[in-house]
């Protein structure tokens, strides 16, 4: 059994498999590097006539549009994505094909999307993008909780749980959680409000 090490510390056991050769692209996208026009132009070029572009155009909140863009970009290009509220940005050495932080939401732990990384076309990111697009187009969003349920941590948790129940997403590393609550912060850097 091998280990996946983040900054020199063993975090999660990983059996030796073909995943040993997985490498997430070493480029980083920060949402503030793309203004609204650049994001829309990217989506028009790569997601023309899809629900993704339609959802982006109809998303009532900026955070939702940013979530959709970041998932669309990483689904197509791979790499690491950082939101506005993350101080610093780095790429993580990992044998996993996707890396997401766990975040506390009251008494529950959810999958964060303030920072994440994945190989191009990763099935979890693609499924999350499809579900975020579907929810954005089919729901009324009035509160921040509604937005998080459509494109944020609540949606990611739902997609992940549904996939895991079917035996999918074994190559996704979730950092943090009740046993190691600071693991995501150490890996991705601190969030700023």
List descriptors.
alpha/beta; two-stranded antiparallel ribbon; 6-stranded mixed β-sheet; 8 strands; disordered N terminus; 20% strand; 193 residues
**Count of helical stretches:** 7
| Contiguous runs where pLDDT drops below 50 for at least 5 residues | 1-21
Biggest pleated sheet: 6 strands, mixed
> How helical, in percent, are the residues?
40-55%
Strand content: 15-25%
Q: Specify the structural class.
A: alpha/beta
N-to-C order of helices and strands: EEEHHHEEEEHHHEH
On the 0 to 100 scale, the average pLDDT is: 80
Q: How many β strands by DSSP? A: 8
Shape: globular
Q: Using only CA atoms, what is the Rg?
A: 16 Å
Q: Please report the distance between the alpha carbons of the first and last residues.
A: 39 Å
Description:
The chain is α/β, with parallel strands linked by helices. A hairpin with a 2-residue loop joins strand 5 and strand 6 (108-111). Helix 2 crosses helix 4. Mean pLDDT is 80; it is low at 1-21. The strands form 2 sheets. Strands 3, 4, 5, 6, 7 and 8 form a 6-stranded mixed sheet that branches. The longest helix has 16 residues, at 62-77. It is built from 7 helices and 8 strands, in the order E-E-E-H-H-H-E-E-E-E-H-H-H-E-H. The chain is globular.
